[in-house]
Write the structure tokens for this entry.
Amino acid sequence: MREIELRVTGANKKIRGNVILEDVSLTMHSGKICGLQGSNGSGKTMLMRAICGLIRLDSGSVSVSGKVLGKDMAFLENTGILIESPAFLNGYTGLQNLMYLADIQKRVGREEVRQTLTRVGLDPDDKRKFRKYSLGMKQRLGIAAAIMEKNEILLIDEPFNALDVDGIELVKNILREERERGALIVLSCHERQLLESLSDEIYVIQSGRITDHLIPGEAKEPE
Ligand SMILES: Nc1ncnc2c1ncn2[C@@H]1O[C@H](COP(=O)(O)OP(=O)(O)OP(=O)(O)O)[C@@H](O)[C@H]1O
């Protein structure tokens, strides 16, 4: 897979007068998990939405290896996304839902979709409709949708929500495998230990501002 650099430069966003993002700059690379750490409402999800082009910045830019979002591309290309609860069709099974999405880009076929379902611990032959899925199963299906096309970039917001202990371990392993494959992964997770155990670097975000950039495991210099 090609090496890419995802860059956010001087990002500002206000919604109805409230500062959502303030002068946010960060740089991320292929083969790394970049963690976003911050309390509820600090701006992690909004930053992810800005990165993929779902919200338009007031100023600043998002670029992938020099290609600027909103100028050279309308949405971030080659990107798998799990942001908040993904919208699936209630009357479709898990496999039918993923096939519906896979048919948009036609980059993966039925066999790969089935394999992805198995990878997240779901049975591809499960005949239950999505509306009958438990919260954890819905979350697993959302993760499957994000990873099934083997994209260069993964934007993964709170992947561990509603997962049991085995599910957490499974998703941790999947994220590590995706990094190994060379994906650039942006990960938010409110549980600090979990985030630190997975991330190669962490940006701390508070009230829409980046306040720290940490390498987990490296002792901080005393101030
Ligand atoms: N649709 C919206 N309209 C206006 N403001 C919003 C909207 N969605 C979120 N916000 C505000 O944007 C700020 C950042 O929210 P965001 O969802 O990015 O936080 P977060 O760090 O992801 O929090 P959490 O850990 O709770 O998911 C908050 O102040 C929130 O109130």
About this structure: The longest strand covers residues 18-29. Residues 5 and 29 are 5 Å apart (CA to CA). The chain has a mean pLDDT of 94.
